[in-house]
Amino acid sequence: MSPIPVLDPDDPRIAAFRDMKERDLTGRQGLFVAEGEVVLRVLASEASRCAPVSVLIAEKRLDGLKGVLDRLPADVPIHVAPQAVLNAVAGFDLHRGILALGRKPDAVEPDVLLDRLPERAVVVAACGIGNHDNMGGLFRNAAAFGAGAVLLDRTCCDPFYRKAIRVSVGAVLRTPMAAGLDAGAMIELLAGRGFEVLALTPAADQALAELKPARRTAILLGSEGPGLPEDIIARCRPVGVRMAGGFDSLNVAATSAVALHHVTTAQLAQG
Question: pLDDT digits over 77-91, tens only?
């Protein structure tokens, strides 16, 4: 590790990190910005599907991060700046003091992705998730409960947006995924690979708690408010999370956690 001192926020070597509050690298040359120690540790780990490109950290964080920085490839530059310079680069007070630039993994065709999964598997599928906090929470839950993949339709936001990556605590960087899909085609693909597709909707007659999941199960989630379109629900098995006090629905990230816990626990119990 050979840290590169940066004393000027206009240093061209760290231009990609500049003014992150107003813009994001998502969609530009396949790059993304990651923030915080937890995410950096994932990016530098063998579990990451993404490649680190460069790092920018506050001087005060250097000694504590030596272990993780030493795991980065030798050609990844590590820029070190005073906190004030780092704040000026980012465009806000970056209390965590850690930024990294990464490269997205090569896209994988969804059929190839599903064919790689074992006989017993759980997949998370999503339609119309536009909130980056929810997207990050969905990926965090998928990783925590062992989902084999995440499929996103073309109306979902990009999971590689900085806030989504941060909320996911790095799960976006390590989870197999396919994005930009047509929702109907996604359901057909899952069914063709032996997955029972569960459409989570508060209008369902069947309660999730009563469900005995198939060995291959896909959990389909829609956006908060409108939820899943009726024609999409009609092509799946509708299930709902029963709630008290007249509540209609949970936050979509919370719903994913409840559904994943039930399905994965029930699958293990079935043997």
Answer: 999 999 999 999 888
Q: How many residues does the chain have?
A: 271
**Angstrom distance (rounded) from CA 179 to CA 6:** 37
Which token pair is 263?
A: 């399905």
Chain segment 103-131, per-residue pLDDT in tens: 999 999 999 999 999 999 999 999 999 99
> Distance between CA 55 and CA 259 in Å, rounded?
37
Are 45 and 72 a contacting pair, CB within 8 Å?
no
Own/partner contacts of 76-80, CB < 8 Å, gap of 24 or more, are 76/52, 77/4, 77/13, 78/1, 78/2, 78/3, 78/4, 78/54, 79/3, 79/4, 79/5, 79/6, 79/13, 79/14, 79/54, 79/55, 80/3, 80/4, 80/5, 80/6, 80/56
Give the N- to C-terminal CA distance of the chain in Å, as an integer: 47
Residue 17, sorted as left (phi over 0), alpha (psi -120 to 50) or beta, turns out to be alpha
Measure CA 185 to chain center: 22
User: Is the entire prediction scored with pTM above 0.90?
Assistant: yes
Q: CA 120, CA 115: separation in Å to the nearest integer? A: 12
Using alpha carbons, select from 4, 3, 29 the residue that is nearest to residue 16. 29
The Cα–Cα gap between 266 and 268 comes to 5
- Local structure of 190: helix, strand or coil: helix
CA-nearest of 122, 252, 140, 139 to 200 is: 252
Cβ–Cβ < 8 Å for 76, 38: no
